[in-house]
């Protein structure tokens, strides 16, 4: 099975850049339809998350419609992932309908303290780091901690592919010291802000219910006086991306790291609520986020 998975990744990376773009998005959207039908556990988790966002009083077909759209968006992201290494700078910009806030990247990088960048699993969330690498002409390292894919050979394939885009992937289980070193050297970190697999972040109010959210971006920004910049990227109906890079988050620095990082995470939660509430189908997170749903899954 592992060998089949490895060859499947290799084949997809070979095939995706050769597909006509419009057909590729259509094909991967249909694969998303299939995943929606077959992945019962993921679909159930997604709908639980969705009920926190849009309420529990909607008809079931409304939840199903948004969930199916989210699966389509997720598989379209894989199409972009598999073909990303073949895109040059012009090709990356061709994927954009709009990109707001690039000046905030320029201003932040000029400070020489690196950037703690944060993004949710929202739209084509990989575009933020890809665009950052291209916009800065790969002159500044872009480092992203990720869960180690299995089998290991697949992780190595994806790591090499990302390196071709100017993005360094580091396994999240060993990322701590690497991220500190990279940030001190002026790198841009791409960190998740909506899922905390380590279960070490604070529990904050998120869509009016307690959820444990990651505090990595907040802690790094506070400890090293680096800008904390959030970005959100929507996939439009024409499959182009609308990227919004927000101004650096205003952080409280009282000297109490735990309290200050918690306050930062609460601000991050408000920004996620703003975007996810408007475009729920863009939030493609199929793991439980809220404490009550996690507790129910464990039972």
Explained architecture:
With 299 residues, the chain is an alpha/beta fold. The protein has one domain. It is built from twelve helices and nine strands. The protein has helices at 2-15, 21-38, 40-54, 60-83, 89-94, 102-109, 126-135, 152-164, 175-184, 216-223, 257-278, 291-298, and strands spanning 96-100, 115-119, 142-146, 167-171, 188-192, 203-206, 209-212, 228-235, 241-245. The strands form two sheets. Strands 1-9-8-2-5-3-4 form a seven-stranded mixed sheet, sandwiched between helices. The protein has a two-stranded antiparallel ribbon with strand order 6-7. α8 (152-164) links the parallel β3 (142-146) and β4. It starts with a helix and ends with a helix. The mean pLDDT is 91.
């Amino acid at each position: 099975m592992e060998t089949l998975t490895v060859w499947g990744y290799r084949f997809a990376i070979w095939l995706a850049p050769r597909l006509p773009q419009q057909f590729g998005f259509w094909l991967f959207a249909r694969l998303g339809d299939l995943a929606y039908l077959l992945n019962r556990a993921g679909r159930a988790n997604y709908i639980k998350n969705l009920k926190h966002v849009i309420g529990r009083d909607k008809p079931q077909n409304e939840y199903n419609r948004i969930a199916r759209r989210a699966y389509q968006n997720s598989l379209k992201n894989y199409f972009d992932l598999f073909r990303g290494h073949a895109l040059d700078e012009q090709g990356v910009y061709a994927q954009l309908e709009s990109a707001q806030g690039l000046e905030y990247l320029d201003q932040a990088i000029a400070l020489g303290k690196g950037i703690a960048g944060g993004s949710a699993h929202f739209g084509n969330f990989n575009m933020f780091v890809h665009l950052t690498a291209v916009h800065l002409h790969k002159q500044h390292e872009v480092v992203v901690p990720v869960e180690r894919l299995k089998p290991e050979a697949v992780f190595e394939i994806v790591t090499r592919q990302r390196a071709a885009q100017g993005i360094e992937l580091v396994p999240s289980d060993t990322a701590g010291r690497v991220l500190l070193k990279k940030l001190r050297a002026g790198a841009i970190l791409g960190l998740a802000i909506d899922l905390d697999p380590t279960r070490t972040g604070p529990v904050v109010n998120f869509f009016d219910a307690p959820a444990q959210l990651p505090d990595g971006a907040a802690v790094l920004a506070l400890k090293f006086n680096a800008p904390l910049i959030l970005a959100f990227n929507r996939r439009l109906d024409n499959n182009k991306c609308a990227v919004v890079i927000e101004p650096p988050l205003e952080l409280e620095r009282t000297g109490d790291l735990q309290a200050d990082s918690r306050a930062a995470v609460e601000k991050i939660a408000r920004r996620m609520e703003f975007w996810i509430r408007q475009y729920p189908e863009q939030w493609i997170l199929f793991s439980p986020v809220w404490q009550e749903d996690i507790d129910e899954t464990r039972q």
